[in-house]
Design a protein that fits this description.
Blueprint (H helix, E strand, L loop, with lengths): L8 E5 L4 H12 L3 E6 L2 H13 L3 E6 L5 H14 L5 E4 L14 H29 L2 E8 L12 H21 L4 E8 L5 H13 L6 H11 L8 H11 L11 E4 L9
Parallel strand pairs: 1-2, 1-4, 2-3, 4-5, 5-6, 6-7
Helix pairs in contact: 1-2, 1-8, 3-4, 4-5
């Protein structure tokens, strides 16, 4: 299937590890000129090299995509290297502050800054050029906690702020559709990534339990109808479709990719 995005400039935020890297590589395979932006230079360079080795075109920048300065630097780098970003992936680490009794007021402010305001800064940086061209795609990698709260995991600040980003995207999409711009949000379930394994290990240690990777994996086996964790490539495929010309009538949506784990009807 031709997604119609060959030659498009794609800015892949948080695009050097896990789901973000899989999306960067998928966009590269679709013929995009991919700018990989993330904090760790080594991982950025590795991802760029992988895209190039597969025959794609890519460049990278070390930038903190949770803050305004880092976002503006990444967008400027993309513009100088390939042109204004036409496809943008918003993907930042979610907050992991703990449960209600373990959090402070400042934790909620920090989470809001990193999750919601980073999306505000990103959209302000890329939307003017998209509007001028009459075409654009923004996809945010979010979490299923925008549909159902995390009960087993201590992520109260994520439960609150992830919903904020979903609502923000819905609101902006309502205004940008007339310019040929779509904005969608992906709800991730349990995916087999380095970050997932690290988080589950830290969670076990915080509870005074030895970490057992097989037991950590079983958590999702039991609650997911497909009986397994997801693979980053599966999320990347959905992201690439939403960035494509084939998805031009899909906007303002929260799309869950979780193996059927969410139990809400709406």
């Amino acid at each position: 299937m031709d997604f119609g995005i060959k030659g498009k400039v794609a800015l892949s935020g948080g695009g050097s590890k896990g789901i973000g890297r899989a999306i960067s590589e998928e966009l590269g395979r679709e013929g995009c000129k991919v700018v990989v932006a993330a904090r760790g230079k080594e991982a950025v360079d590795e991802t760029v090299a992988a895209i190039r080795a597969a025959g794609g075109e890519a460049a990278g920048i070390s930038a903190d995509m949770t803050g305004k300065a880092g976002i503006e630097a990444a967008v400027a780098f993309a513009r100088t290297t390939y042109g204004d970003p036409e496809i943008v992936i918003g993907n930042v680490y979610g907050p992991t502050h703990g449960r209600w009794d373990e959090t402070k007021d400042e934790d909620f402010l920090e989470a809001y800054q990193h999750i919601v305001m980073s999306e505000v800064y990103l959209c302000r940086a890329v939307l003017p050029a998209m509007k001028a061209k009459g075409w654009g795609r923004i996809v945010t990698v979010n979490s299923t906690c925008s549909k159902e709260i995390h009960r087993e995991l201590p992520l109260v600040t994520a439960n609150v702020t992830r919903v904020g980003t979903t609502s923000l995207n819905k609101s902006i999409a309502d205004e940008m559709g007339r310019y040929g711009i779509t904005i969608n949000t992906l709800g991730t379930g349990g995916f087999y990534t380095e970050r997932y394994r690290s988080y589950m290990k830290a969670n076990a240690e915080r509870g005074g339990r030895p970490y057992d990777e097989s037991k950590a994996m079983e958590r999702d086996f039991a609650r997911t109808p497909v009986g397994r964790l997801g693979y980053p490539e599966e999320m990347a495929a959905m992201a690439a479709f939403l960035c494509s010309t084939r998805a031009s009538y899909v906007t303002g949506q929260f799309i869950v990719v979780d193996g059927g784990g969410v139990t809400t009807l709406l």
